[in-house]
Amino acid sequence: MDKEHSLISGQLDKVELQYTPIETISDTVSALRDSFASGTMRDISFRKQQLRALLKGMREDKKNLLDALYHDLHKSHTEGLYAEYDAVEYEIGQYLDNMDKWVKPSRNALASEQPAFLLSKSEVRKDPLGVVVILGA
């Protein structure tokens, strides 16, 4: 394994990087697509649980994430925290707080003046269409 060194807050730590083997990525994506196709991921409580798990992982590895921002993008600890980390944490919070409201179907009267459609209504459903994979998490 490659060794990386980080200089954050005046301390030098050794961080051992663990890379996702390229040959496992397609299997991981296929497994997620199969799970999505089975309907597992359509449940709101499942999606919230996944977001909570992501948030927990971010909080547990906060220092490593900020170190990675420093090494990859040369962002200071403070800049990485406020411009990147806090923004993602805030977005996850917004999704958790508002998802129930956002996924409710919206019902509207049809904008048609044809007599056959005067009493008709449309419904827009906000269903997930696919999967997102965060590698290395």
SS-derived structural category: alpha+beta
Strand order of the largest sheet: 1-2
Number of helices: 4
Determine the N-to-C terminus distance: 17 Å
Specify the helix fraction band. 40-55%
Strand fraction: 5-15%
Number of E-state strands: 4
Mean pLDDT: 81
Output the helix-strand order: EEHHHHEE
Largest sheet: 2 strands, antiparallel
State Rg.
Answer: 22 Å
Low-pLDDT sequence parts: 1-12
Shape, please?
elongated
Report on the structure:
There is one protein chain. The protein is α+β, with helices and mostly antiparallel strands. Helix content is 53%, strand content 15%. It has a two-stranded antiparallel ribbon with strand order 1-2. Strand 1 (3-8) and strand 2 form a beta hairpin. Mean pLDDT is 81; it is low at 1-12.
Sum this structure up briefly:
The protein is α+β, with helices and mostly antiparallel strands and 137 residues long. 53% of the residues lie in helices and 15% in strands.
Itemize the secondary structure elements and their pairings.
Blueprint: E1 3-8, E2 11-16, H1 22-37, H2 44-60, H3 62-73, H4 77-103, E3 106-109, E4 121-124
Antiparallel strand pairs: 1-2, 3-4
